[in-house]
Amino acid sequence: MEAGERSGVITLAGLEAQVPGPNGERSALALKRGTLDVRLSVPLPPNVQTPHEQDEIYFVVRGNGVLVHEGRRTSFGPGDILFVAAGVSHHYADFGSDLALWRVFYGAAGGELP
């Protein structure tokens, strides 16, 4: 979609062509609207993350791995949805170079109430 468009289709292939970015970025911006921030993420091991200010959802496009969060290890695969509340420490483990996820940040800093 072009800036200013109010509807459209965002293609996986179009964003995959932008990864890696010019400085080695492993994600590409798909949509930014208000607090909504959507990126295609194609991480490489090791995956190191810091807790984020907003709630986040990951939609697994392809690949398998383990979400390490709150002292737990939870396996995931294609079609799964991962949720991580704002401020929760997390990262991916045991995944290969085929992993691709839609990463969605939304809501106010500090997260939304349950």
From TrEMBL:
It comes from the Bacteria. Residues 51-93 form the Cupin type-2 domain. InterPro entries: Cupin_2 (IPR013096), RmlC-like_jellyroll (IPR014710), RmlC_Cupin_sf (IPR011051). This is Cupin domain-containing protein. It comes from Sphingomonas horti.
